[in-house]
Amino acid sequence: MHDSELPAVAALRDALGADVVSLPADFAGRKHADWSRTPSADPVALIRPRTTEQVATALRICHEHRQAVVTQGGLTGLAGGACMLGGEVALSLERMSGIESIDRVGSAMTVLAGTPLQTVQEAADDAGFMFPLDLGARGSCTIGGNLATNAGGNRVIKYGMMREQVLDVEAVLADGNVVGGLRKMIKNNTGYDLRNLLIGSEGTLAVITRAVLRLRPKPRAVSTAFCGATSYDAVTTLLHAAQERLPAGVSAFEVMWPGYYDFVLERLPELRAPLAERHAYYVLLESSGADPERQAEAFEDFLSDMLESGVIADAALASSEADAAVFWAIRDAPGEYPRLIPGRVSFDVSFSIADVGEAARHAQAQLREQWPRATILIYGHLGDGNLHIVVQEPDWPADTAPRVQAVVYGVTAEFGGSVSAEHGIGLKKLGVIALSRTPAELAAMRAVKHALDPLNLLNPGKLLPA
Amino acid sequence: MHDSELPAVAALRDALGADVVSLPADFAGRKHADWSRTPSADPVALIRPRTTEQVATALRICHEHRQAVVTQGGLTGLAGGACMLGGEVALSLERMSGIESIDRVGSAMTVLAGTPLQTVQEAADDAGFMFPLDLGARGSCTIGGNLATNAGGNRVIKYGMMREQVLDVEAVLADGNVVGGLRKMIKNNTGYDLRNLLIGSEGTLAVITRAVLRLRPKPRAVSTAFCGATSYDAVTTLLHAAQERLPAGVSAFEVMWPGYYDFVLERLPELRAPLAERHAYYVLLESSGADPERQAEAFEDFLSDMLESGVIADAALASSEADAAVFWAIRDAPGEYPRLIPGRVSFDVSFSIADVGEAARHAQAQLREQWPRATILIYGHLGDGNLHIVVQEPDWPADTAPRVQAVVYGVTAEFGGSVSAEHGIGLKKLGVIALSRTPAELAAMRAVKHALDPLNLLNPGKLLPA
């Protein structure tokens, strides 16, 4: 044992070896912050296990030594959930990567938690299936991180969030006990729903090591349109009608407010405007299904009806994948934010679908009152009630962000919305979770945390305010 | 206070009045057993609150007096989850019944927990939606009971179990604190998933008082076929192809083994055989969607392809609702079991879809070996991996049931299946939960139970073995 080594680290190295447990000198320069750039301390050691047994051994030793642990996936989180506060060991699942098996009959895939999302998507595709979870970080984020944060993304309206893409989760609890495993049953009413409790717990209840993912039939055809509407009522009427009448259902319903639409078209000259006129709301509507010819016909009929009945004022129908890409490029413009609007304040909030229009109006009016010249971009997955709001002014004083947050989170609380639709709480949203959860709910969560991690060793200081 | 009254009961009557809290003399003859006919003791008092506040007051008082509570819904459970062991008060939600609001824009309905499922289905239908959960007990079972047991039923393959029909759940914890409420957000990543923890907890963690239910678009067309197949591989090929190719997806995929098919056709002369020949497997396939004409065409094309390519040996296509009813009557024959096969032993197990065929073969062979003359009926929701097995011999000795259970649960454990796919654990399956859950999982569940109900007052003795 080295002089400067902590007893916990020494015990971890004794049990797992120097290959699995590295000391700070071995990983100098390694990045520990996530995409939110929340500052992170350096860990006192880095554990990179190769097996669930090694994870269990590590947690058992940490438990004995009361050593705190932060689990790392792809470090693409947006809430600072994987950053370190000081004194923790980092547990990276990077070596537990790979697809273990694909069950074609059961439409299931067993993967290690460190597997990148994109690897899973590609393997599903190769096997003739689709894994529907999709988000911008797909190349770097891992299935374990997607599970720990209950990731959302682009296709929630049709397929649900990460929680609905999983048949079973294997995880190691704070005391080193392993729960869950390789079950592929869709129905299993035997006791409490530990699986959903661990999913979305952001590394504070367990370390997820493996999962059985649910695969879906691969869509054979995608129909896409870009629509203009004159009122929020018209937008929700379109959503409702699409859900009721499109034979293949709705796989995306992305709404953009004119401030967003005008901004991205002006600032990104490579984008093409799909519609000739300006409208009060823009909707990217997508339906994907099994029957190319009939689906295209039905989609076109539906759009004609919506135009004739005045639900939408205009629509452009994609007649090729290239057309659809033009529409999606407008919705995907946020990828350019770092260049276009540095220093922005961003929100990931959700509301009842009926409230989204009013909530957006209130937020915009209140922001505009305080910051008349600010760029205010509003858009979101309306089918899920999920709104993204981005606010920026070039020469803001340093203390502006908290004031902008006070406005938007204030409106969110007023409408009974969620301060975190899909990004989680981590460290960054600890101060606002109480706007979406009652004291009784937070107390119940603390009781559950204490039950499963009584020494508060797993990702301490995250998800639940002290 | 009456001489014979318990202090807890006296305090409940003081706080809530005699109208809400009845004494045994007032409810003599009232039934407390569920449909599983598990014997139940009589409660020491019956609480019938009208509001969530009254439920909270009742639980707070019970907590102070360490008085155990059993919550009653429609008493249609099949696992003895609502029966009393002696000394409990019964808390019936029968007066908290009714639909509070329907949100057409958000496709959501807010209901009190005591509302019967059928009332919810009908109100959804009247409002132009569908509430997809459906089971035989629909007229008597309540939404609160459906939530407490995470009910399954006929349409899980397309819409999921009760867990997936809910946006929020209001519940009263053991100490009288109220959690959850009237949130209608689809996405809400703010802390632990208390909602799913309470759903399926069978009244052991909280009393569910209200729910925001998710409504679905009403299908405009239903296509139905009855198919014969020669092998289990063919059955799973048909399932896979149907999921991939039917534009409206698969809304039912019910498989019947020949023992079942022959038995019900022989014993229920009012049934008509849909197919001329006998087959190794029978499949009731249903697809329901938005576009009557195109859907019917696509369904017919699909069946022709399956016949031509030899996946199925024969198929009857329903050309009317009456035809479909004839097919469904064969699958719904278990409603006649009480008359046809008294004294039967029934199972509700699940497996990976890939394992169902082998598991059924093993169970049947082992049962046949011990009881050569027994009636053995096998059928199930194959799309969910859910198998029902019913075994009976007219003049069985009284101790046969445990021996039959040992065989079927033995095979279930061997194939890593679930001993309770949809009926829950209650009291009846306490002895077998350990076949589907590991000691570490049961320990974690006990820790959660202790965290939320430290005095073990909510439905004690159920769901978790002592």
UniProtKB/TrEMBL annotation, chains A, B:
The UniProt entry, under Gene3D superfamilies, shows: 3.30.465.10, 3.30.70.2190, 3.30.70.2740, Uridine Diphospho-n-acetylenolpyruvylglucosamine Reductase, domain 2, Vanillyl-alcohol Oxidase, Chain A, domain 4
* Cofactor(s) needed by this chain: FAD
Q: Is Flavoprotein one of the keywords UniProt gives this record? A: yes
Q: Where is the FAD-binding PCMH-type domain?
A: 39-218
**Keywords (A to Z) from UniProt:** FAD, Flavoprotein, Oxidoreductase
- Record's keyword annotation contains Oxidoreductase: yes
Q: Which GO terms describe its biological process?
A: respiratory electron transport chain
| A Pfam family per the record | FAD_binding_4
Q: Which GO terms describe its molecular function?
A: FAD binding; oxidoreductase activity
Record family assignment: Belongs to the FAD-binding oxidoreductase/transferase type 4 family.
- Protein name as annotated: D-2-hydroxyglutarate dehydrogenase
Query: Which organism does this sequence originate in?
Result: Candidatus Burkholderia verschuerenii
